[in-house]
Amino acid sequence: MISFIVRMRFAPEDHDDIERILRELTRFSRHEPGCVSYIPHFVEGDANSVVIYEQYVDEAAVDAHRASPHFAQFAIGGLYQLMLDRSVENLTAIA
Q1: Judging by DSSP bridges, how do beta strands 2-10 and 83-91 pair with one another?
Q2: Between the CA atoms of 37, 19, 6 and 70, what dihedral angle is there, to the nearest 10 degrees?
Q3: Measured in whole angstroms, how far is the alpha carbon of residue 41 from the centre of its chain?
Q4: Is the whole-model pTM more than 0.90?
Q5: CATH no. for residue 31?
């Protein structure tokens, strides 16, 4: 199982666009065969920050996600164009 958290920050004026983009990206991502979990969040008390929790069955599923047309459209062509900064935390499951 591959799990990670993506953290991004956006300008306040982009909030509605970010929410729209994340809804579409999530809808498509959750239908990928190797996607176990894809959950975007706005951070309470900081509406300009987004946290996405992602879980995939294996590295091939992560690669397929990143190579998908919806990732190109909504992540690379949408979120990445508007984000001010981004970090990724790779997780190791305990149980």
Answers
A1: antiparallel
A2: 70
A3: 9
A4: yes
A5: 3.30.70.100
